[in-house]
Design a protein that fits this description.
TIM Barrel; hydrolase; alpha-L-fucosidase activity; Jelly Rolls; globular; eight-stranded parallel beta sheet; alpha/beta; single chain
Length: about 450
Amino acid sequence: MAGDRARAGRARTAPADQGRVRSREPVQSWKGTAVIDPSAVRPSPRQLAWQRQELTAFVHFGPNTFTDLEWGTGVDDPAAFAPSSLDCSQWVAALVSAGFKSVILTAKHHDGFCLWPSKYLPHTVSAGFGRDVVGELSAACEAGGLGFGVYLSPADLYQEKAPGGYYGNGSPAVSAQIGEFTYVVDDYNRFYMQQLHELLTSYGPIAEVWLDGANPTHSAQTYSYDDWFDLIRRLAPDATIAIGGPDVRWVGNEDGFARETEWSVVPFLNGQMVAEQTAASVAGPEELARADELRWYPAEVDVSIRPGWFYHAAEDTAVKSVPELLDIYRKSVGRNAVLLLNIPPDRRGLFADPDVEALTAFGAAVRQYYDTPVALPGEVNVVDLREDITAGQQVESFAVDGLVDGSWQEIARGTTIGHRRLLPLESPVTVNDVRLRILSARADAEVSLSVHFDPLL
């Protein structure tokens, strides 16, 4: 299940050779010049566009949907995947209506089954269902104005267990042709990159490539991350590479919250994050003091709308409520992260009714309570701060005062802001005006302040 998945290794830090460059060395497209001044670190255009989405969706779909498993075995019958009424446009319509900006599909989960007719193996939709789910969702996203991303699991139980499989087979690295490019890789990395090439050239445009760190296999297999990143940058230069990739890090849990102090400026030492991604602090003073490099490395918060990541009919009554989803929203989007909310299609190939109802109500609540500020004077219970992150992330601590009955009173206090900070008040208060006091900052920062009232708090 979700917790098992995290324990199995999602919290992988960036590879040791990723970004180990200094200011006088050549800089490859995914690598950043060494920076030790935290006020000088800036997001790339792709990271900025990614952060501004705020709401993104995950779709876990595959044989597990039909076998009632969370992690498949790798030898499941591909004919088990048999949605009766697949309609990717229904997914897109529900997501767009709720305010989501992009969706990431599990094109291949850990079981190795492919939701597109890959020419590199038989364990795909071609073995039974016969329809290209990746292609249909890509087309629906383009028609609906939704960004499209792909999850391609590095771990592959089918390639580990199938006769002649490549995963962990001990093959040497040799010259391999990947489309129009040549790399020196072993059998499995060649296979993985061939699949990346298929996805990035046959579908899209691709907004995000998601590389899960979880690994249920039992074979030793080294991943050629730098070659993967190079191929993605060549074929999809605007796509963010997430979770262990160079653009976006895992927040460190699957419970729907970022840290109260969440920095996008993250310290590295010898090419690795100083702290584990699961640590309570990944970019505090102690971590900064140990760094030889700082990078813009923002957090993504992945959580499911249900207890499981794949659909299980028994969980139809356990879909998160609107107050629960709004709490997640405040603690992810409202803590300088992007929310990646999983909505798993059912065995029909549709978002189930309880999920659509929750999404619809959640989107309406966000629009009503958080998209439009309260006109003052008025009653408020949430403060909303936004830092201009094109100039970096600078604010270390702040306070917000409210003008109450003719005098200024402190109503909220916090640490980092970043792209957005939503801070609930202890109780509602009627104010005539509000003001921000920046208590500590790394450099000058431009911050906007607004206030909201959420009746569900």
